[in-house]
Amino acid sequence: MPEFSRTITVAQLLETKGKDLSLEVFCGGRYLAREITRPSLNRPGLALDGHLENYRAEIVQIIGRGEYAFCANLPQPKLKANFRKMLSPGTVPCVIVTAGMKVLPGICAACREMKVPLLSTSLDTATFVSELIAYLDDCLSPRTHVHGVLVKVSGLGILIRGDAGIGKSECALELIKRGHIMVADDVVEIRRRRGGRLVGSCPSMLKHYMEVRGLGILDVEMLFGVGSSMDSSEVEMEVNLITPSDGFIDRLGMDQQTTHILDAEISSLTIPVTPGRNLAVLIEVAALNHRLKGQGIITAKEFNRKLMSKMKEKNGK
């Protein structure tokens, strides 16, 4: 399962989000090719006073009102020297001064000498930080492509997987007919977001299209309405469709299976495909049962507890 992360340059940030974030280049416009590799921001704090222990020099540096007030009270030569030390690792993508505050000469001089872009924004610090983190998280989060179908079933994002021709798309088509929502067919792009959440989406060329053997390419929105598809969904459960000969099947559901995608763990379920089984209904029930498990209700274990209790009663007589 290939995994890849993206990087963006400061220039790309300005091009795609500069207007929304009210970003302007104050100095260092020649160095906008610097790369942003982490979906995080840093407010320097003690680093502004020359203390660089645990200082994160690889991410975007934000100068908010608190940092600005401290910098404004420093002699400009000392501020410049401290900023040079901050920027000396050479990995800082850029420095951004928020809230429309006037850029201090010491900061500007240090950025020029260290060839680091210095940007400013009129947005309040809290608003700017939340907007930029959301954008960077979307751009830079680890992602992978998997073969399968992603369907929103009873509010739960279910990734249906299995060998080619086993009936993944046919199962998803039946779920759509029953009122559930398709996210992606055949190729699912999955991103790991903050908190270990997995979010699946469809490559732009394949959105709301489905391929079913014997029918060809179907436009799900044209057939079932615009409410039958959505752009993305959290991936909360994996359902593997297999032939009965492929391996052992836990008939009681005592074993709680899981799988890992991009180092995030999600619940997993294996369903054998045999003639006459209504896979769509089984997946609907699996989604509802997953909700119960989330509330601490595991039916198989509850049944086993009652059974063992009954056996103890009989043995005690």
Description:
The longest helix has 18 residues, at 299-316. The strands form four sheets. An eight-stranded mixed beta sheet has the order 14-11-10-8-9-15-17-16. A five-stranded mixed beta sheet has the order 2-7-6-5-4. It has a two-stranded antiparallel ribbon with strand order 1-3. The radius of gyration is 27 Å and the shape is elongated. The protein starts with 7 loop residues before the first strand and ends with a helix. It has nine helices and 17 strands. It has 317 residues and is an alpha/beta fold. A hairpin with a 3-residue loop joins β12 and β13 (216-219).
| CATH homology group of the largest domain | P-loop containing nucleotide triphosphate hydrolases
- In CATH, the architecture of the largest domain is 3-Layer(aba) Sandwich
Question: Structural class per helix/strand content?
Answer: alpha/beta
- Count of domains: 2
The end-to-end distance, rounded to whole angstroms, is 56 Å
User: What is the CATH domain class of the largest domain?
Assistant: Alpha Beta
